[in-house]
Amino acid sequence: MVVYSFYIFDRHGKNPIFIAITQLTVSSGMHLQTPLATAPGLHLRSTDDDSKLVFGTVFSLRNMVRKLGGDDDRALLSFVSFTTSQYKLHYYETPTNTKFVMLTDLKSPSMRIALQQIYINLFVEYVVKNPLSPTEHTGGVGVNNELFEQSLEQFVL
Amino acid sequence: MPSITRTVFSLIVINKAGGLIYQREFQPGLRKLSTNDYLVLAGTFHGVHAITRSITPKIPIAQPAPSPATSSPSATAPTASGYSYPNPGVPVTGLDYLETDKFRLTCFQTLTGTKFLLFTDPLTGNVENIVQKIYELYADYVMKNPFYQLEMPVRIRLVHILVSGDDSVSYTKTTHFSRTIERTQQGGSRIQDKQK
Q: How many domains does chain A have?
């Protein structure tokens, strides 16, 4: 299984609070993310147009699914994943509207449990429980937590 | 003896400009939206479908591999064929399947850009065949209808009559489309309904 990229959005979604690109990718603007080219493992990027597109996509789809899905437990209903001919996007949203998005190849199984584990075991432990971590990530700094990044790297790779 | 679960909630046909041209609910399960909401949904999906195509991960071809020291000058000059897609050889599509807890959305885009959205139960199998069949029916009964205006809504004036089971009204070709789709979707379930 190949994980192409991984995003975390807070409830505002204005800026992603965490982006990791595992496979080196070329953004649609045709410029190589070369500073990350040689180092293996996870690569961090501050901002990217792709992340905005990803957020827009999951936001629209989630709203669409909520509108169509029935009335019961609507608060928790959202989509699990979607597939194109090239990749699979997995989505998990916490009750506090933090959104976890992972792009993988088509062969990967459902990553719902994995994303949940990332939230419970890594995000809550290392980011939420960190007294120095801000509750609102408005400045665009993002999570910026080495321990979280390291353990995520171990978890994903 | 319903050996195969074949629950189709609804069908939406979107033209190549993102306009809703056909909407039909077959079995209850999804919430009913107003016509306006369906139009918005069709437009939104059209946009999202295009975006999902554009966020396809692009994997650079490994051979350049510039060192970090020389990266800044070369960063501005990537070769045009500097990347490949995860599944090279397969045409890049937008969203094909969307899975949720409640339903599964299958999107089939024709070569001309018309999109067929089929909302089914997550356990329903063989959805591709159903969609393919619907496409055939669309081609036969809508596109071959000389009175059909391209990109305009598929008129289904007699739908309420068909639902109520009154067959005495003469059919237009397009209502025949609806009827035949209904038969395709429901398969044997109509017979069961009659037995009730």
A: 1
pTM for the model stands at 0.77
Q: Which of B12, B58, B107 to mutate to test the interface with A (most CBs of A within 10 A)?
A: B58
d(CA B120, CA B186): 12
B39 burial level (CB within 10 Å; 0-12, 13-18, 19+): middle
Contacts of A30 (CB under 8 A, 6+ apart): B78
Q: Does A26 touch chain B (CB under 8 A)?
A: yes
Q: Does residue A107 sit within a domain?
A: yes
Pairing label, strands B59-60, B115-120 = unpaired
Q: Phi and psi of A152, rounded to 5°?
A: -65, -40
pLDDT in tens, A42-90: 444 434 678 888 889 999 999 899 888 866 665 567 889 999 999 999 9
8 Å CB contact of A68 and B31: yes
User: Residue B148 pairs with which residues in a beta bridge?
Assistant: none
Q: For domain B8-58+80-149, is the CATH number 3.30.420.40?
A: no
